[in-house]
Amino acid sequence: MLGAFKINGGNQLHGNVQISGAKNAAIAIIPASLLSEGVCRIENLPYIKDVNYMLEILEKLGSKVTRVSDHIVEIDNSNITSHVADYDIVQRMRASYYLVGALLGRFKKAAVSMPGGCNFGERPVNLHKKGFELMGADVNLQGGIFAAEATHLHGANIYCDLVSVGTTINLMIGAVLADGLTTIENAAKEPHVVDVANFLNSMGANVKGAGTDSIRIKGVKKLSGCTYSLIPDQIEVGTFMMAAAATGGDVTIENVIPKHMDAVSAKLVEMGVDIIENDESIRVKRTGPLKCANVKTLPYPGFPTDLQPLIVALLASANGTSIVNEDVWENRFQYVGELRRMGANITVNGRAAIIQGTKHLVGCPITATDLRAGAAMVIAGLMADGETIVNENKYIDRGYEYFETKLRNLGADIERIDSED
Ligand code: EPZ
Q1: Nearest atom of ligand 1 to the alpha carbon of 304
Q2: Which of 11, 95, 206, 228 is least surrounded by CB atoms within 10 angstroms?
Q3: Which domains, ranges and CATH numbers included, belong to the chain?
Q4: Residue 336: CB partners within 8 Å, gap ≥ 6?
Q5: Measured between alpha carbons, how far is 306 from 193 in angstroms, rounded to an integer?
Q6: Whose CA is nearest to atom 28 of ligand 1?
Q7: Predicted pLDDT of residue 143
Q8: C-alpha 260 – ligand 1 centre gap (Å)
């Protein structure tokens, strides 16, 4: 038996749920702390596997990591012993590319093994490479290693050929200790890009314009330690919004920045869901049927690709035909075969999924193929008649804190079945 979630569908979700800190901010901010010789205290960290992996990687490089609580760590990077992150320590973390920006910035050299592609397409780092080269680094990508070295790391004008979250954050991290001014044009504007910039500034960096498509970083000589609290996880918020809408429930999602959810809220309203925004919470309520809608994933402030599998699951039970276009990743519909096993009527044509809504999904054993697809399958299970087993829940554990507990507290019938491995 693989680790799994067992779900008995049909329960409406009701009540309040608290959102954790942003995963994709955490796994950039933890390596970015390497830029400072002081102690960084990071608060509101989500208690998830990807954060733990990233902390282990830093420990292997010589960081002293103190877990103050599940959600607070102190990282002391005064005695880093290595600028090399080997395959055995980074293979579980695709975002280990942030170690390149951090180690190159602080030590002017980095060698970080890169995991290969993933099950929704190639994961190229050509834009990261180009940016570091413009900053004066020699970059080599041979043998699965992202190696960069500079005798003089300097500011540069960098235009990103496409909007990339990882490139924007990595170059920002690399530029804060470089000599002079770096500008990143066509930058990503995701909330966690802004969060990383705020973290860097709280260590003494000079980063301006994060959240717009033009970021300016004036290099400083040295950074200090800091205390920093992460923003809430926009994708976790969206996940609970979808779960409430899917079950015809009434859920108030707390510790939220409603503005971050504009594209998702607008789409759910179009689908017949009531959205009530407060300062730091969003109430999601559905009484009528779900209507079909067309969705196109885009960089922020567009509809997030990380919620694409979840809205597809929701549309699978909506009235009418919907088209979902995936504009960020080349191959992010691999999971639809699992939804089809539950009776979903979905055809994939290149980067588009055509979804003919069906009245009833039927529970059955399915297998998570990645983190967000796994969450989508749980949502399908909550809507379905009968029992759904979502295998490989390890993917879901990478990015959602106490997922089944939070859902159970809202009235879902879901339990964890442990792996026998
Ligand atoms: C981040 O990945 C997130 N991961 C992803 O979330 C998310 O799907 C993605 O941003 C888009 O929002 C983390 O933050 C750890 P990109 P990232 O660089 O930064 C192409 C999740 O589920 N590209 O914005 O790696 C690339 O192929 C994960 O939490 C290049 O061509 O994504 C893609 O088509 C999954 N060359 C597009 O850009 C490059 O050098 C956007 O990728 C870099 C990227």
Answers
A1: 12
A2: 206
A3: 2-20+232-419 (3.65.10.10), 23-229 (3.65.10.10)
A4: 312, 344, 346, 348, 353
A5: 16
A6: 306
A7: 87
A8: 18
Four-CA torsion 6, 10, 11, 14, nearest 10 degrees? 120
Calculate how far, in angstroms, residue 9's C-alpha sits from the geometric centre of ligand 1. Answer: 32
User: Ligand 1, atom 14: nearest CA belongs to which residue?
Assistant: 24
* CA 54 to ligand 1 center in whole angstroms: 17
Segment 290-336, tens digit of pLDDT? 999 999 999 999 999 999 999 999 999 999 999 999 999 999 999 99
Token output for 406:
């939070």
Instruction: Return d(Cα 330, Cα 409) in angstroms, integer.
Output: 36
What is the pTM (predicted TM-score) of this model? 0.97
Please tell me the distance from the alpha carbon of residue 328 to that of residue 337, in angstroms, as a whole number.
20
Listing DSSP states for 183-233 in one string gives EEES----HHHHHHHHHHHHTT-EEE-BTBSEEEEE--S----EEEEPPB-
Greatest extent of the chain over all pairs of C-alpha atoms, in Å: 63
Among 119, 45, 109, CA closest to 75: 45
Nearest ligand 1 atom to the CA of 190 is 12
Work out which ligand 1 atom sits closest to the CA atom of 123: 27
Residues with a known catalytic role: 118
User: Could you tell me the distance, in angstroms and rounded to a whole number, from the CA of residue 94 to the centre of ligand 1?
Assistant: 10
3-state secondary structure of 236: helix
Contacts of 33 (CB under 8 A, 6+ apart): 40, 42, 58, 63, 75, 77, 102, 203
